[in-house]
Amino acid sequence: MLCGMADPTELERLERRVVRCRRCPRLVEWRERVAREKRAAFRDERYWGRPVPGFGDPRAGVYVLGLAPAAHGGNRTGRVFTGDRSGDWLYASLHRTGFANQPTSRGRDDGLTLRGAFIGAAVRCAPPANRPLPAERDNCLPYAARELELIEPRVVVCLGAFAWDAACQLLGLRPRPRFGHGAEHTPAAGPTLLGTYHPSQQNTFTGKLTEEMMDAIFARARELAYADSAP
Where in the chain does DSSP place strands (E)? Predict the structure, then answer.
């Protein structure tokens, strides 16, 4: 059975709400300052400098939950996990496992499309030092909650412990199942959670997370979401 398709109009309405959000003064100040000052390598580019909406297939069986946009990645390009090394790693894996039409993601108009997967983040603004405060997470989680409500995925892949804890909060899981790479939890109702180490450079450069490890997570996500069909 294929997953149901989210109403595109509702997703567009949600996207408009996300990009206008100014709930967290610290994050607003930081994302806009980064967009003004820029990184030298991107000094000729126009930064997005706003909250970053979710992206992907509205009938996705797999929902990928990240932490937050990178200051010079999603905060620059306007698309989640786009234009930074974590995104390079993630989209390459999604391509190898059949969820993405290409292995790279450079900008919003680079032709990347996802099939069977949708990507969101627990926090939609780039946070200082990549560390959102608990109150900022709580302000932002309703956006991911609405995406889950509209898309109704069978699997949520959590990129790192922060995303795992956020997903547990979204799904009301008490006690929270333990996070780890390859962790899998199927609640009585709702999607199955899969955990993977975050594709940050501190994990990929050190070998804590390998391509094979991440590919295995998305292969398992495909198996769980599409055992009786194809996306």
Answer: 55-56, 62-66, 117-121, 155-159, 184-185, 192-196
